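To assess whether ligand presence alters the predicted conformation, the chain was also submitted together with zinc ion. Input:
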Amino acid sequence: MYSVSLPLLMLCYMRHHRTTPRRLDQCLLANFYALSVSVLMTIVLNSKPRSSRVIFNNEDTIIKRTEFASRETLLAQTGHKSLNKHQGNVPVRFITSFNSEWREISGVLRKHWPVLLADEDVASHILDYPSVTWRRSKNLKDMTGPRWGSFQCGDCSACQFMERTSTFSNSSGDRVFSVTHFINCRTDNVIYFAKCACDLIYIGMTTRELRVRILEHVRDIKNGAMALDIETLKTIPKHFRKYHNSNPKTFKVRGIDRVQLDIRGGNYKKELLKKETRWTVELNTLAPKGLNEYISFKSFLG
Ligand SMILES: [Zn+2]
Ligand SMILES: [Zn+2]
């Protein structure tokens, strides 16, 4: 409970945890008075009388009950559960990440603990020794392992069209979303987000590996250059023929969502169509604001 009363101590440590224990020691000492005040404030705030807690529950009853009571009676602590739960002292817990200086840090806390114990009021609410909890530090896997987002697989011809990012936004750019899956060119059952140099968005879905669908789009864009009637082309090749000379260089894709069915199975395509519709509406990608030509709600029926 009192761990919240240690922000100054923690700030002090965070600011200096890369420095020598001696500097940490000086810093802790300099802030110890502030720490004492902080602990005391927490104790006072956590010991508020019951009358102020229940006054909103039944105002008339409270007014009747307190009308003739003395001020001392009203301010005395009652037998509320949260106050009875901790009979005796509650440890003031110092929580930080484990590091190579853990012995020194514990030593500094132990060395200066008597400063807090010297105050009668504070001493009655804390243990005779500091309690330190070490949080697990980041390991190599945390620092280098795959995170959520859209990535290149690094080993296919679609990689050059794949964007490495963890966010995407709607057509007006005022809403930003996070990718909550790990998706790369070789991920299947994916909802993807494609964009050209003019920032027009296309939302699509595929049950196959994403790289297969990306290369299909690239082929369509290139073939668009040879079309005799531009109006017969699909939305993306038509746009690239009109505005980008049928050059797929500026065609960029990112995976934004995927469908993973549980052990009971289900219909991947139906779930993907639902998500595709949802993202098309959410990101406002219907033409002319985006490159999606139509929207279908069929997947939500039946
Ligand atoms: Zn790839
Ligand atoms: Zn464009």
